[in-house]
Specification:
2 domains, Rossmann fold, seven-stranded parallel beta sheet, alpha/beta, single chain
Amino acid sequence: MSESVVNPLSRENVLLVAEYYPIGGTRTYVKQLLDFYHRMGAAVTLVTTLNDADPEIEALTSSFGYQLVTYAQVLHQSKFARPAVWSPLRFISERRAFREYVSQAGFTRIVVSAGTPGLLLGALDSLPNGIYILHTYPHGRRQELLARVYLSRLIPRTAQVVCVSHFQQDLVKRLWHTDSRHVPVLTLVNSCGPELPPRPVPSTPWQVLTVSMVEDYKQPLQWVRVAVEVSQILGRDNVRFVWVGDGTQLDAARRSAESFASLAHIEFVGSRLSAQDYYESSHLYFQYSSIENMSLAVIDALRHGLPCVVTETGGLPEIVDNAVTGRVISPLDESVAAEEIASILCGEKQLSSWAQDAKLRYKLKFSQSRWEEDLLAIHSTR
């Protein structure tokens, strides 16, 4: 951290309200925030929207001396209480409950980390100078039709909206009309932690990795077909495709992979607490999403020195420098995706050069020190 950046958090009592899933980038980001506030010396109470037990988050908050409560407990409702975006009554009850909670506990700052655009704005309105970190860009007909007349009016004027990509920032400004209400919208690009030392080149066969929730918008069935086509180009025994993550489409994806078992080595390993070993044993990262914002998994691939093939979707082109650290392709052309993957894997010098450039791009654009300085600067504003 630069000496010129003053730490405003050492005496803060932060209420961190977080929407996240049992796996995925929003959960990783919450862990990063908890670690950040701990190292900055802030006191934190984490309010989670999850109702189920989460041993890892519970252990982490406990080790930092932080409090952990559920959203339902704050609202004095059953354990199944959940926040909503488009209900005025739910917004009012949420704001009332969080204002009461804040006044009783003496919090000095509220930070909301949300994956759903517009969620938890009632909680955000419980304190002035709140920070609203949004991980997904607004999309869908409700956002197009109702955000201006309804959602934009719920964002406190004293709050700061923090986006994780410039693509997302532009959409938030357009759909939420933040400029007309003088609500600042900033971009804070993600980080995945400290830089890693150089790693030895994994042995063959080549391994292509994806770390993601297995959902429709990640296109797992199309991903399988790409894997089959690459295997036909390179030979089944020369390449394997591995997908780490859980999701509603996991079973369907596994059945699809099994149907092509004679043609391609494809494995959906399910959820893992850490994907570190998979990154270290892989040669290339592949993200074939139809919707994506600023994928932590792709950024982590750069950190591990993996060239990436990603779709020209959302903020992904902001991560991968096309023809320097990988390829940015259409999310609609499986043959092009297969040809690019096969070409990169076969080009030994290119693969090595792009691996080095991937680590350099992480250092220059996504480093932990840069993320921390920018986040501290946001806390120092207003």
